[in-house]
């Protein structure tokens, strides 16, 4: 079909406020549509399913052409006339889209770049609401295919018997926190129960400070699966028994509410969570900037930050200029007040004693790298961070190991959630964790989608990824709060990846939740810098690079307890090692008379080598494999010992 070119007169809406007033007159439509949709979840009705696909903007003869495809996904397309709002920086326009096919091409010529379109914002079509339009409700929980209620402890109070009887009647599965499995959290609508002193949402959502004399029910979006609701239900012991009866009356009703609060038989609150109006599609994102005259030099920026207690400098891990900026900020903070500490993502908390020993001069650098398991825990070139650590060592500044053990976060990611951890591992986690900070799920999902393209079990794998990422932020925030509370006269420079510095939903709000302190975020300005709300200062840096490390051209692993050394697990035929005669399965046992016991020893030794330098390598080579079959009468082959070989090569 040829594209439908809509040349009709666009009706100008005077202002966004006018559109908001028009929306307020659509509440009845919205409620009717929401009730119909919830009924449709039980197969009672059929609604139109709409989607806007492939939106594009292009310049066309002095105007801006907006094109997209309107899709109807239900089996039989319906004839529809759909209002469409077109939002530009100056005005909001309205037109009508006509569709009676499964796929309707739409083209519009505009005088300015639209920032957004809103399809059917007045809820006039008999359609399914989009996820962004659908508020979480009790009805959405009770009508979900699978429902799960989680007690605050092993057993429920006796006074909850009527509630538990109702849940059993509705075939809601009731479990204790110890019975939570990762898949439960992504596949079921969730009901977290609390009794005013304990709650089952701990570790997933932050439980609000609800009144102790009222029953409160709050429906939220499940951060691990936003298509399903997560309900918080607080039933404090001090609440009157009549309130439980009133609660059950509301639960048995239509359930079209996101928040319900009852005290002494009276309804204190009965409301729906506000949502977006219409199917919204973001379009043009105009560039932003700052006046050149507003650009400050580094000295002025640091003077402005002189009273800030926590300063983050977000990095791209392999960008040397970022680490030079971190060191420059550390020097400036130290000049302002020598009581400054450095928090580093690169070290798990278990390495704190090794860090302390190195800073105290009790270890040399190679021993420090070995005992801190640098190459296992972080793996980035140590030289990127060396000068920061050396500065702290020279001036006797504390360095705080911020991170969790790598194995814990890896296990949470691989197995889908914290429920996969042992009780001992769970005891290492910060108890208060929040997966539902606004915008956090969307930001982490964008990173997840870059590296994960398989659709099979994607929701489960993303649940593990989201929990692992939030554990990093929560653990680092908890460790920072602990240090700052114990050292109220210290400031803190935080050296972490840029994704952990986002002011909206990374470490900063999680630290504020634990310990309100002044915080500022600095990130390097690049083409894809963070959103303005994510940082306080963007700094312009010249690209810098370290001298390239010499490479042997081998893939390595540990030799093992019975064969100490570094095993050559793979070798490049074009590398220095191959040219010198090193082969796969050789065991490197010495480098320039330095004994090599494992892969970390080799990495540390190579850290101090330079290109053009002559290197002596001692190898232990296994005997050549013998043929499995022998001719009759041939003698049994004799196994030889490993051969020791000395090789000299130029890096």
Automatic annotation (TrEMBL):
InterPro entries: Cofac_haem-bd_dom, PDZ, PDZ_sf. Residues 1-19 form the signal peptide. Residues 619-643 are annotated as: Disordered. SMART domains: PDZ. Residues 538-623 form the PDZ domain. The keyword Cell inner membrane does not apply. Keywords: Signal. This is PDZ domain-containing protein.
């Amino acid at each position: 079909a040829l594209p439908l070119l809509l040349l009709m007169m666009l009706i100008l809406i005077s202002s966004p406020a006018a559109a908001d007033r028009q929306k307020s007159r659509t509440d009845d439509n919205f409620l009717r549509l929401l009730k119909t949709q919830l009924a449709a979840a039980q197969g009672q009705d059929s609604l139109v399913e709409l989607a806007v696909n492939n939106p594009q903007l292009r310049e066309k003869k002095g105007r801006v052409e907006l094109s997209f495809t309107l899709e109807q996904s239900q089996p039989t397309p319906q004839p529809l006339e759909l209002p469409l709002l077109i939002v530009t920086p100056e005005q909001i326009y309205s037109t009508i889209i006509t569709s009676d096919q499964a796929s309707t091409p739409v083209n519009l010529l505009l005088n300015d770049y639209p920032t957004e379109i809103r399809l059917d914002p007045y809820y006039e079509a008999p359609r399914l609401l989009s996820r962004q339009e659908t508020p979480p409700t009790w009805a959405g929980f009770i009508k979900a295919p699978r429902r799960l209620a989680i007690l605050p402890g092993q057993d429920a109070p006796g006074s909850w018997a009527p509630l538990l009887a109702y849940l059993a009647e509705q075939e809601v599965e009731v479990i204790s926190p110890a019975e939570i499995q990762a898949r439960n959290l992504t596949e079921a609508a969730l009901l977290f129960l609390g009794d005013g002193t304990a709650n089952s949402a701990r570790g997933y959502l932050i439980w609000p400070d609800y009144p102790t004399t009222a029953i409160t029910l709050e429906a939220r979006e499940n951060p691990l699966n936003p298509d399903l609701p997560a309900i918080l239900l607080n039933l404090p012991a001090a609440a009157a028994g009549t309130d439980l009866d009133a609660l059950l009356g509301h639960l048995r009703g239509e359930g079209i509410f996101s928040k319900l609060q009852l005290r002494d038989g009276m309804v204190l609150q009965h409301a729906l969570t506000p949502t977006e109006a219409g199917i919204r599609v973001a379009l043009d994102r105009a560039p932003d900037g700052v006046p050149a005259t507003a650009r400050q030099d580094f000295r002025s920026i640091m003077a402005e930050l002189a009273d800030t207690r926590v300063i983050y400098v977000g990095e791209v891990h392999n960008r040397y200029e970022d680490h030079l900026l971190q060191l420059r900020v550390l020097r400036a903070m130290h000049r302002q007040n020598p009581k400054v500490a450095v928090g580093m993502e690169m070290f798990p908390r278990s390495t704190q004693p090794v860090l302390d020993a190195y800073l105290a001069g009790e270890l040399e650098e190679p021993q420090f790298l070995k005992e801190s398991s640098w190459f296992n825990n972080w793996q980035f070139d140590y030289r990127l961070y060396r000068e920061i650590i050396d500065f702290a060592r020279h001036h006797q500044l504390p360095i705080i190991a911020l991170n969790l053990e790598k194995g814990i976060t890896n296990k949470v990611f691989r197995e889908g959630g914290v429920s996969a951890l042992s009780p001992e591992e769970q005891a290492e986690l910060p108890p208060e964790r929040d997966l539902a900070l606004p915008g956090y799920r969307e930001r982490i999902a964008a990173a997840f989608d870059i590296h994960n393209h398989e659709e099979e079990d994607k929701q489960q794998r993303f649940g593990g990824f989201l929990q692992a990422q939030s554990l990093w932020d929560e653990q680092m925030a908890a460790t920072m709060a602990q240090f700052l509370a114990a050292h109220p006269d210290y400031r803190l420079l935080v050296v972490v990846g840029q994704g952990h510095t986002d002011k909206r939903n990374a470490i900063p709000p999680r630290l504020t939740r634990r310990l309100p302190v002044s915080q500022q975020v600095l990130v390097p300005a690049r083409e894809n810098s963070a959103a303005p709300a994510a940082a306080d200062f963007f700094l312009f840096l010249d690209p810098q690079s370290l001298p390239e490390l010499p490479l042997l051209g081998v893939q390595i692993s540990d030799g093992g307890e019975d064969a100490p050394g570094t095993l050559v697990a793979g070798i490049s035929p074009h590398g220095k090692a191959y040219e010198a005669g090193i082969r796969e399965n050789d065991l490197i046992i010495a480098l320039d008379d330095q004994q090599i016991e494992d892969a970390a020893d080799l990495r540390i030794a190579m850290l101090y080598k330079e290109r053009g330098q002559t290197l002596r390598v001692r190898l232990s080579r296994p005997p050549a494999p013998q043929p499995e079959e022998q001719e009759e009468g041939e003698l049994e082959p004799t196994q030889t010992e490993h051969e020791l070989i000395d090789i000299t090569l130029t890096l």
